[in-house]
């Protein structure tokens, strides 16, 4: 059984432990590994997944502003519990509970009615055919932002990118000689010179692209990928 604990995290089945929001990523990954093999998602930075029964558990780590030096320092921000989309016609085999409600065990309409006004703002439910069963829920460390118009969302995202770039600007200006770009998987990873070297993991892909372009344009040393 998975138990959603708003403000805390997600308790995993048996004695596996609890994915706690705010815990560093190394700790969260160790807890997640108690379910079985942990797999990174290449299309989503700082995101890993594991399976238990018919439930896929996906944990995302990250932080606002300047990224942590290594992915292991990033705090856990959200956990997604999901089943295959074709499973919407049948109840879940593994309970996913919030309080005394099994979110995947009853038709979606009944689940939403049972939650009523007590639905936590941190809980995000994927829109579905309410005649069937839920197939995906997400618990966030803080409530996700309310939906806004497309133009407003785009403006807010662009502003966030610019704020992050302003914070990271020393990488290609005043601190340029302290950094390298390591070739990796067809792209580049900023790496701080030192002993030991530390990678700068930037989870926002738009920010990562802009940072890499600025560092290349500034002549930051590029280190070939080690095969």
Question: Any idea what the radius of gyration is?
Answer: 20 Å
State the domain count.
Answer: 2
Q: What is the share of helical residues?
A: 10-25%
| Beta-strand proportion | 25-35%
Order of helices and strands: EEEHEEEEEEHEEHEEEHE
Number of helices: 4
Strand order of the largest sheet: 4-5-6-7-11-10
Q: Which geometry do the CA atoms define?
A: elongated
The beta-strand count equals 15
Low-confidence region ranges: 64-69
Terminal Cα span: 42 Å
Question: Mind describing the biggest β-sheet?
Answer: 6 strands, antiparallel
Mean model confidence by pLDDT: 82
Structural features:
alpha+beta, 4 helices, 227 residues, 2 domains, six-stranded antiparallel beta sheet, single chain, five-stranded mixed beta sheet
Write the layout of secondary structure elements.
Blueprint: E1 2-5, E2 9-11, E3 18-20, H1 25-32, E4 39-40, E5 47-52, E6 55-61, E7 76-82, E8 96-98, E9 101-102, H2 108-115, E10 123-125, E11 136-140, H3 150-168, E12 179-184, E13 187-192, E14 198-199, H4 205-217, E15 222-223
Parallel strand pairs: 1-8, 12-15
Antiparallel strand pairs: 1-2, 2-3, 4-5, 5-6, 6-7, 7-11, 8-9, 10-11, 12-13, 13-14
Helix pairs in contact: 3-4
């Amino acid at each position: 059984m998975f138990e959603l604990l708003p403000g805390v995290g997600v308790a995993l089945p048996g004695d596996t432990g609890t994915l706690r929001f705010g815990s560093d990523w190394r700790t969260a990954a160790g807890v997640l590994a108690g379910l079985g093999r942990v797999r990174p998602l290449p299309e989503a930075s700082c995101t890993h997944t594991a399976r238990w029964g018919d439930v896929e558990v996906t944990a995302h780590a990250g932080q606002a502003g300047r990224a942590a030096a290594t992915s292991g320092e990033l705090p856990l921000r959200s956990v997604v519990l999901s089943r295959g989309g074709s499973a919407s016609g049948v109840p879940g085999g593994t309970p996913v509970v919030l309080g005394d409600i099994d979110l995947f065990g009853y038709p979606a309409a009944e689940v939403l009615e049972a939650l009523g006004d007590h639905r936590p703002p941190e809980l995000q439910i994927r829109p579905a055919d309410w005649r069937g069963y839920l197939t995906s829920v997400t618990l966030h460390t803080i409530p996700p932002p309310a939906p806004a118009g497309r133009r407003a969302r785009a403006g807010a995202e662009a502003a966030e990118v610019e704020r992050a770039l302003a914070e990271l600007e020393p990488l290609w200006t005043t601190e340029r000689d302290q950094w390298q770009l390591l070739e990796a998987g067809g792209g580049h990873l900023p790496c701080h010179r030192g002993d030991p070297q530390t990678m700068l993991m930037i989870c926002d892909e738009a920010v990562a692209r802009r940072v890499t372009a600025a560092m290349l344009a500034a002549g930051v040393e590029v280190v070939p990928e080690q095969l």
